[in-house]
Amino acid sequence: MLYAWDLQEGTMIWSSPAQQSSIMRLATLPQMHLAFTADLEGTVKVWNCQDAEALATLTMPQACFSLEICLTKDGPFLMVGNSEGDMYTLTVPELRHVSKVNAFKYSVDLLHCSPDKKWIFASGTHQNILPVVFLTESLLKPAEGKSPLSLSIPYSSCCRACWAPRRTSRITVMYRRGSFRKTGFTTFELMAERTGDQTDIQAHQVATFLLPPHMESPMWMGVGDGNVIVFESGPSLFLFTISGLLLQRFEDHQRTIGNLWVDSVHVLSTSMDDSLHLYMWEEEGRYPYLKSCCHLEHVGSDSAPSCYVSKAICDNMSIVCVVSRLRESSILVMYSLRI
User: Fold this and answer.
1) pLDDT, tens digit, for every residue of 205-229?
2) 53: left (phi over 0), alpha (psi -120 to 50) or beta
3) Cα(83)–Cα(105) distance, rounded to whole angstroms?
4) Cα–Cα distances in Å, from 138 out to 52, 89, 130, 182, 188?
């Protein structure tokens, strides 16, 4: 089932009917009060979070591995990546077919639209896949007989990628390399040049570095202004420049950090010690830095460690986190921000 909550009141305001298959992927379009789901059988649905039935339903030929909303000047579109490496572009809310392109041979695990909606990053986590960046316009307005404009990023084994919120053509990719699976970060600046009827796209590598061998490989990452990278390693949070200079290290958790939420204002870390920590970006000096703001812990009735904060997100008004419990169903915890 799918649920909608009023965060300020802490009350559930809508729920969908029970679905025949488990929901595996979720994306939202807050500007239009829409939610998008993909289930285990490859059925994609659009919900307005008011009516009992979905606004539109589309059954895909293969399982869906990724969903991404792209809100452009021509309207909103839904990008769907499947298990065969195909990427579909669909209208919203009708889910009508616009284009289909085969990005690579394996599943499309990551889909990220750039902040200015000019680029779409697609990748899988398989070690033989090179990430691909598409010019969004060529997906929304496909030319007959021509492939969408794209280029490959020459780094395989991609596991995360983030667009810089202010430098909208800059993307940082986290990858694993070598037999010991060392973690590295590489940053590219994308350019599109039009000459007559022809458009040429290029990727210029800005910086790259590998983490030290002794550092535990991170699972999550985010970027600040395009020049700094934040990621976790064990119970610690690190801030590096895109060239590999360590700027900050935080030790606010006792156990492994399990999830990160990063936007242009906040960084939220959640840990297996049943806590979350809020940081905020500050702009002073050559590089932005993180300011530690508050530490929140969920205190259960059982003295034994039976639950942990598995995920958290926030905006300028609220923090919402999921507390996963070992012997019971998970619970949703909401906080109001006073900053």
Assistant:
1) 999 999 998 899 999 999 998 999 9
2) beta
3) 9
4) 36, 11, 20, 35, 21
| Structural domain spans, the chain | 1-148
User: What's the CA gap between 113 and 80, in Å, rounded?
Assistant: 12
Residues 6+ positions from 283 with CB-CB distance below 8 Å? none
Nearest to 183 by CA among 233, 226, 128: 233
* 225's tokens: 């202004």
d(CA 332, CA 44): 25
Residues 267-311 pLDDT 10s = 999 998 888 999 999 988 789 999 999 998 866 555 445 567 788
Q: How far apart are CA 269 and CA 183, in angstroms?
A: 20
Cβ atoms of 264 and 194 within 8 Å: the answer is no
In 3D space, the residue among 38, 135, 142, 28 whose CA is nearest the CA of residue 81 turns out to be 38
Number of C-beta neighbours around residue 34 at 10 A: 19
- First-to-last alpha carbon distance for the chain, in angstroms, is 34
Predicted TM-score (pTM) of this structure: 0.92
Q: Which two tokens stand for residue 169?
A: 């053509």
Tokens representing residue 49 in the block: 């979070």
HSE-up of residue 175 (Cα within 13 Å, Cβ side): 26
CA dist 201 to 88, 173, 198, 208, 235, Å?
Answer: 21, 18, 10, 21, 40
CATH architecture entry for 1-148: 7 Propeller (2.130)
Question: For 135, phi and psi rounded to 5 degrees?
Answer: -75, 115
CA-nearest of 3, 49, 45 to 20 is 45
In sequence order, what E strands does 211-265 have? 221-223, 228-233, 236-241, 246-250, 257-262
